[in-house]
Design a protein that fits this description.
Elements: H1 35-39, H2 50-78, H3 84-104, H4 117-143, H5 146-153, H6 156-168, H7 174-192, H8 199-222, H9 232-254, H10 258-268, H11 271-296, H12 299-321, H13 327-354
Helix pairs in contact: 2-4, 2-11, 2-12, 3-4, 3-9, 3-11, 4-8, 4-9, 5-12, 6-8, 7-13, 11-12, 12-13
């Protein structure tokens, strides 16, 4: 079993690093593990070569991240299950349950505890922002295609830089800000040429993206004390049940007939039970595979994979749902992803120069 002190975070303060992955389900990127941890694998993995284990984990990461997007889109837009808040609440309940088993029984990471009321309220504040971001992201899938959703999500670094400046007065180098221009230009192209553009879907997707960026900045401010920092899997363990409790009254008030609809649907079509349980399970696997990819590779690899995932998810969704795309829309998406890559490189050079 890995001892607790092995997981002390060594990465830079999130206030000083505004690079955020495009994936709406990532809670926190743990520090790159030591060589000793990288070489250690689970009992099953010990019988396989390290390269094969890493390849399987990366493959699982791609499948879970793309799978949850496609399942959400299918449920909300095609299957007729128009309850994004309740669906998000199921995701949170699933994450809470699986996290409890993974940490307390499988011991994938050491258990950390909330040490004070102050720390609890800090986590609760992050949880509120997290709920807003995830609900907006799921709601947007009801109105806009997955490909357009991913294009908007790729602009997360732009919003992170804005919030870092507004909240912490942190200024980036001119090169970093210049790299954000293609990010904005690309999404303008994609928006103007989107055949299935929906203004409300666009707004809530922007809300989801900005919420994800805001959470990363606020987390860097609130959880600065070393004793208060939690590993990403422990943070998920505490945030998920809080999120479920926050979402429950909103679901009952806004989606009042969701329980009756779900029960009636289950009686006439039991497949919905499989869909909901499978969807909630995959939502947890997104967080688990994020942790495993970082454990077996690095945080930088996860960021690179995030860019590739956005493009692959857009491509797969077009094949599955047959939503129309335009050359201008594809070009806009490509420009945005290229801008994110340039931004990441500019951030790395800025750090090297600062040191």
């Amino acid at each position: 079993m890995v001892e607790a002190q092995t997981w002390t975070r060594r990465m830079s303060n999130p206030r000083l690093d505004s690079t955020v992955s495009a994936d709406d389900q990532v809670l926190d990127i743990p520090a790159t593990p030591t060589a000793e941890l990288k070489n250690s694998t689970y009992a099953v993995g010990s019988r396989l070569s390290p390269n094969l284990v890493t390849a399987l984990i990366i493959g699982s990461w791609f499948m879970s991240n793309i799978g949850v997007l496609l399942l959400n889109k299918y449920l909300l837009s095609f299957y007729g299950y128009r309850y994004p808040i309740f669906l998000t609440m199921l995701h949170m309940l699933s994450c809470a349950s699986y996290s409890y088993v993974a940490i307390n029984f499988l011991e994938i990471v050491p258990r950390q505890h909330i040490l004070s009321r102050k720390q609890f309220f800090k986590i609760l504040a992050l949880c509120v922002i997290f709920c807003f971001s995830v609900v907006c992201g799921n709601t947007s899938l009801r109105y806009i295609p997955v490909s357009f959703n991913q294009a908007i999500g790729a602009t997360t670094p732009f919003f992170t830089a804005i919030f870092a400046f507004l909240i912490t007065c942190k200024k980036e180098s001119a090169e970093v800000y210049f790299a954000l221009l293609p990010v904005v230009f690309g999404i303008v192209l994609a928006t103007n040429s989107e055949p299935l553009f929906n203004f409300f879907g666009f707004l809530v997707c922007i809300g989801s993206t900005s919420g994800r960026a805001l959470k990363s900045v606020v987390q860097g401010i609130l959880l600065t004390n070393e004793s208060e920092k939690l590993h990403s899997m422990n943070l998920l363990l505490y945030m998920a049940p809080m999120a479920a409790l926050i979402l429950l009254p909103f679901s009952l008030y806004i989606e009042g007939n969701v329980a009756r609809f779900t029960a009636e649907k289950a009686r006439s079509d039991s497949f919905i039970i499989f869909l909901l349980i499978g969807n909630a399970t995959v939502a947890y696997l997104v967080n688990l595979t994020n942790f495993l990819v970082t454990k077996h590779t690095s945080a930088l690899t996860l960021q690179v994979l995030g860019n590739a995932k956005a493009a692959l998810a857009a491509f797969v969704s077009v094949l599955v749902f047959r939503n129309p795309v335009t050359v201008m829309g594809i070009s806009g998406f490509a420009v945005t992803v290229m801008g994110v890559v340039l931004y990441s490189e500019a951030k790395k050079r800025s750090k090297i120069t600062a040191h």
